[in-house]
Design a protein that fits this description.
By secondary structure, the chain is mainly beta. The chain has no helices and 20 strands. The strands form seven sheets. It has a five-stranded mixed β-sheet with strand order 6-14-13-8-9, with no helix packed on it. The termini are far apart. It holds the Pfam family Cadherin_4.
């Protein structure tokens, strides 16, 4: 096997048979464009020699694009925007277009694709994506992460390639959710209860009452009064 200056290789047998291998040297040759690869050779009859030249005409076929995997990081409550074709390439220099994400065709104005995780990704043909966790990871504890991956396909108009995008989602400490409470009593009766029964925390943390009507609530409970009555509120949510 003889390596040529072009990067191609030629396997030569003594009887004159040759096997020419472009060896990827002309993969970037545009469709229909030609290139010539020449090399000299010498023959002998045992006593004398003569030289000639072999020229191989290569016709470009337009190679397919190359798609590389992508990664990005965001928090559980933030949308992240990136472009997934910036690290992709085409041997012919053709423009690349995102055509499919998770089996969904991408329209000219962009397409919102629901992912199996429950998150959503807005995808534009030029490769720009907007990944929205969509509340799926609100319960992810602070300091923990989860990875959400999806496949996409790029095309140069004649060929295509597929790669994967993986988004690392970081858990954050979400605020608790407080719901209004109501109770009915007459003007001569004392009422007791708890205000935390219908409140919750997305991260599963325990919640406590820290203030009532602007007054701080301590573990020992706090008394708040006005002309209409008095209220004793404790940090564990109980009141009387």
């Amino acid at each position: 096997t003889v390596p040529l200056d072009s990067g191609a290789e030629v396997l030569v047998y003594p009887n004159g048979t040759i096997e020419y291998d472009p060896n990827g040297a002309f993969d970037s040759l545009p469709d229909g464009v030609t290139a010539e690869d020449c090399f000299p050779y010498t023959v002998s009859d045992g006593s004398m020699e003569a030289s000639g030249e072999v020229c191989i005409m290569i016709v470009g076929e337009g190679g397919p694009p190359v798609a590389d995997d992508d990664s990005e990081t965001t928090s559980a409550d933030m949308t992240v925007t990136t472009n997934i074709v910036l690290n992709d390439s085409d041997p012919d220099g053709d423009d690349l277009t995102v055509t499919i994400v998770e089996g969904e065709p991408i329209g000219s104005d962009g397409t919102s694709v629901p992912l199996d995780s429950g998150a959503e990704v807005m995808v534009y043909p030029n490769g720009t994506i907007e990944y929205d966790p969509n509340g799926v990871y609100d319960s992810l504890p602070e300091g923990e992460t989860v990875t959400d991956c999806f496949d996409y396909t790029v095309s140069d108009g004649s060929g295509s390639a597929t790669a994967q995008v993986c988004i690392t989602v970081e858990g954050v400490n979400d605020p608790p959710v407080a719901e209004d409470d109501s109770v009915v009593t007459d003007n001569n009766s004392t009422v007791t209860g708890s205000v935390l029964g219908n409140d919750s925390d997305p991260d599963g943390d325990s919640v406590s009452v820290v203030s009532v009507d602007g007054s701080p609530v301590t573990e020992e409970c706090t008394l708040v009064s006005d002309d209409e009555g008095s209220l004793t509120m404790c940090s564990n949510g109980t009141y009387s």
